[in-house]
Structure formats: C-alpha cells, structure tokens
Amino acid sequence: MKSFILLLCLAQLWGCQSAPHGPGLGYREPDCDDPETEQAALAAVNHINQHLFQGYKHVLNQIDKVKVWPRRPFGEVYELEIDTLETTCHALDPTPLANCSVRQVIQHAVEGDCDLHVLKQNGQFSVLSAKCDSTPDSAEDVLRVCPDCPLLIPLNNTRVAHAAEAALAAFNAQNNGPYYQLLEVSRAQLVPLPVSTYVEFAVAATDCVAKEVTDPANCNLLAEKQYGFCQATVNEKVVGDKVSVTCTVFQPQPVVMQPLPDGANAANPAAAVEQATPASLPAGPPAAPLGWTMVVSAPRGPPLNRAHYDLRYAFSGVASVESASGEAFQPAKPPKVTQPGVADAVGPLVLPCPGRIRHFKI
What we know:
By secondary structure, the chain is an alpha+beta fold. It is 17% helix and 31% strand. The protein is built from five helices and ten strands; from the N terminus they run H-H-E-E-E-E-H-H-E-E-E-E-E-E-H. The strands form three sheets. The protein has a four-stranded antiparallel beta sheet. Strands 5-6-7-8 form a four-stranded antiparallel beta sheet. A two-stranded antiparallel ribbon has the order 9-10. The chain starts with a helix and ends in a 16-residue tail after the last helix. Pfam families: Cystatin.
C-alpha cells in the first residue's frame, strides 16, 4: 500500500513538472500611470493630432485601460483606452502641443474617447489602429458652472455662416497681402450679452492679392499651402454689422513624407480622407501585428448640424484587430493565481487603472 501511494505521488509530481508553465501567449496589465504606458499613450495622442486637419488638437487627459500583448517575433502591442481634451490650437496650427491651452469648461469643453493599438518595437512606438469619438460637455454642466457662458451651436446655423463671411470680408479688407478663402468654420457660440455671434474659423491663402480681388471664384489656393486661424465676434445691427476679428497666419508648412514605422507595411488609413494636405500622408491601411489582420469599415461624413468636429471623422474607417483565422481577437484572460488570505492580510486591492486625471473630468 505504501508503495502504491509513493508511486502515485511520483506520478503526480512528474505530471506537474511536465505540464507547461504560465498561460502561454497571454497579456499583462501594467499600471495606467506606468511611465512606459504613458509613453504609449502620448504616442497615440501624437498620432491622432497628426491625422487631424479639421477641428482642434487634443491632449491626453486620462488612461482608462491598458493591456500589453507580446508580438511575434519581436515587440509588444499596447491595447489602450484613453480620454483626451480639446485644446484651443487648431489642427493646422504648428504650435507644439505642449504650448496649447486646454479648452476649459466655461468655454464649453470637448472630451475625446479613443481605443488604440500601439506597437512598441526597438524602443519606438507606432500606432497600428485607432478608433475615436469626441463629445462636447453637456449644456447643463456648463451652465451650472457659468450661467451666462455661451454654448456651442451647429456650424451650419445661418447666423454662423453670416458671421464667418462678414469676419472674413473684414479681414481681407484690412489685409495688404494675399486674399484668404474660408477653409472651415471650426467653432461657433451665441453670446447672450451683448447679443452677438462668436466664430472661430480656418482660412487659406490664395494666389490673388486681397486689395485687387474682383471675383474670388478666380482665386486658387497656393501650391505651398499657407493657413491661418481667425476668431471673430459679429454683432448684427440694423445699420450694419459690428465686426471684431483677429487672425493669426501660420508660416507655410513644407510637405514632408512620413516614414513607415519599423516592421509596418503601411500607414494609418487616415490618408484616405479628403484632407487639407493629402500629399503629406501615404495611403494604405494600418499595419497589423504578425498573425493579425485589420478590418476597416467605410465611414460616413460628419452631419451637417454638428456643433464640433467629432474625432471619429479624422480616420477613414474603424480599424479593428482580428486574428488570422478571421475571428475577432478576444483571447481569454489568463487566470490569476492568488494565495488564500493574502488579500485579507494586505487590505483592499488598489486597482492600477484608470490612471490619474491630468486636467479635469467631464
């Protein structure tokens, strides 16, 4: 009997030693505020802003979730969920993001929500896929903080169109340089006191001289694009509009071809969108980790009655990561081994995510 028990124990010991250790090709969950996680998130925000040609630049506000997958044969893929906040810098503004102010609640803030896959290889981060959307703060939240603050209104509002045209005409009338065309109306608000319309819009220089233009339809955008950004308040009066406009003209930006990330075979699909500088972006779908495929769906254009430029329209489609077999890449979470009584001994578990809020939460 003792021999049988000994033989059984030896068999169990051999079985334990011969079984593979660990969950195999699983993922790890680092802290959302881990420096390397933040590096991946900042690379993701930089990617988002590089593919924005309308609306405003965004900054990182919070990292909500992170999973890190091994990528064969080399590297890792960070699966991130992040929150962003809109800044006051237009997407075409060359000002470094670090110098852009975050739009505050009383200015009717806008929050972005993004899901991204970021490849880390040879110490470098590159974005494989991105899916974003953005939403303005609720009117109730804004008015709770500032009852008299103006709220966002649809960009196709007739008062907005009139204000943008009047402000652009006033700017061209006092401009001694090239004639500028309206590129987009980026933001609009109705100001209660005094009753007026506040607009922000982007402009582009043409080959016409402002003082000599007779028919703007004959003016063409310059080959070397030169953009500007204007802020204006238009007070409609019976005897004529009272227009206050200030424009900042950016230095011409050279067109630079973006190199493909190491190990990637194409760039992000944002190049497929009709952008202000399409030549600066290579075409093609985003690169996927080895053994995965990218599925990109065709987008719909932004609605006409929108009050802001939604981040979802910055990309040509919704990219999702799938396995080579065609099934959605949703591997099961590896089991976590815990020791009985350990949690009770150390007290409540401190969750590594979501991370810290860098500015404010909407």
